[in-house]
Amino acid sequence: MTFDVPTTIKLASYAGAGFCIGLGAIGAALGEGFTAGLANEGLSMKPERSGDILKNMLVGQAIAESAAIFALVIAILLLFMDMSSSGSILKAAALLGAGLSMGFGAIGSGIGSGFPGGEACLGIGRQPAVTGRLTTNMLIGSAVCQTPAIFAMVVALMLMFMEFGALPVWPTWAALLGAGISTGLAAIGSGAGGGLAAGASCSGIARNPDSVGQVTTTMLVGQAVSQTPSIFGLLVSFVLMFKAFPETTSLAPAMALLGAGISMGFGGIGPGIGNGLTAEGAVKWVARNMQAAGALTRTMLVGQAVSQSTAIYAMVVSLVLIFVV
Amino acid sequence: MDISGPDLIKAAAFLGAGIAMGIGAIGPGVGEGFAAGKACEAIGKRPEEAGLLTRTMLVGQAVSESTGIYSLVVALLLLFVV
Q1: CA distance A271 to chain B (A)
Q2: Would you list the domain boundaries of chain A?
Q3: In chain A, which among 213-252 make CB contacts under 8 A with chain B?
Q4: Which fold has domain A5-324?
Q5: Which of A206, A257, A266, A268 is the most buried (most CB within 10 A)?
Q6: What is this structure's pTM?
Q7: What pLDDT, in 10s, does the model give residues A97-118?
Q8: ipTM of model over 0.85
């Protein structure tokens, strides 16, 4: 059963579209459901504030939805842009990689953006006076959560539109597929982790409105560290996309490159979530005990650094697979 | 596409190294993060005990790290020794 090149490219493009929207729909739906649930809990506390709470819920859900919209856009592009005339079978690997990248990448950001949305609605129910500040923190926190999905979309668009035709098919096909997997998977942890921190900041502000400044600072520092696994993923993706690999027909170099993508991709999930859990705990208690903010931030950074270690191991293994083996 | 024995073995070893370190990093990442988060909460409740709480956190995280080290060792073995 032999496929000619245009058929294989179409095959990859449709499969990629399927993965893209199938995976991409997961996160946003989960996050928005969480937001709606907490919004109802907030409404049960203060039904007379239903206007504010509903508005907040819809805004928060809209931000979570954006990750899924990115995935929908990439899927539609993959479905309807006819790239089968591009010639090389590398395009097929690139298109499948693009679909996987955006598909996985939307999961974390969707889930993550749900947390601040929900906690903001709950906070309005507890403390209607700080509605404005809660909405602001929800928007800031959710926006940072979306960055991994944006990284994933950038990689997907690069894989779809960059000209790879001049490069040898073996082993570059594995490099392109690995590039998609690396950013896509690594974005899951960072998106969800950043959301945990943002959610804690909203609930903290509702509990203690005076702590707004400290809470926001701690949240941003914690989120910044949470985002680093997705940056590692992006780095490995760029190396895989832009490094010229010597032509070889043996399977081992190809599997090394695919393994590099898998290593950094999965390796970013755990530390991203873990850093988010750490930041969540720190932000929660900065709100309750502002004097301890210094000690809490220090402990948060130490804890996040230790949690980050496995992401660094994964990146080392990836880079060894790319450059040494 | 003629895939020979040694080539196939090396290919599987490389893919396995990637999977080992990749999936192996998930657990320690989440676990150590949870430990650090709870340590932060404890310090928020009792800032004067920061030293003891941080030490305990680091010891607990080190134990959690152990499986991550196993994954790293197996990945390096697959890369260089097999």
Answers
A1: 4
A2: 5-324
A3: 249-252
A4: Four Helix Bundle (Hemerythrin (Met), subunit A) (1.20.120)
A5: A268
A6: 0.91
A7: 999 999 999 999 999 999 999 9
A8: yes
